[in-house]
Input
Amino acid sequence: MLSISNAIILICAVVADSFIFIPKQAKITYVNHKFLTWANASVTRYGRKSPYYLNMEGENKVPIDGTFILNMVVYQFVSNEYRRSFVEFHMPFCEFIKDPYFGGIFGKFGYNLTCPIIPGPYHFMNLTFPTEDFPHVWPFEKCLFNITMTINNVLGGSGFFSSKIISNRRKKT
Output
């Protein structure tokens, strides 16, 4: 029979899955000039041992508030092509920036975003994804995130970024 202290040691020694998120390519495919003046996305790496960084820039003409809906559909790389997977995210932009994992990429680097986001130019450079304490296992290794933003059911912009996800098994203490 296990004592309480032995049970606590076993629980703390459980191997947990974490992962490393590596963006590979990013592109903005459509911009509705009624809502956005311009937008750009790219992936940068500063050296061979440097991580990959996601850069997003743009200028909005209207305030971004709860009417902006972010739709993210994930495609899995299978048999040398991207196929739609079961992973999808649909949320208002204000909820997106409050989320600890998706919005955490902005908060981690000091970009203090609050809704509504006033019109103007924005430059989010050298972003990495906070996956250290992600509570779930990611289901596949290579994927493409297809992102569209709608404003009152009107397409405001679209783009994608592809990524590679490496499982990093670590001990949780």
Observations:
- Residues 75 and 84 are 4 Å apart (CA to CA).
- Residues 4-12 form the longest helix (9 residues).
- Residues 1-17 have pLDDT under 50 and may be disordered.
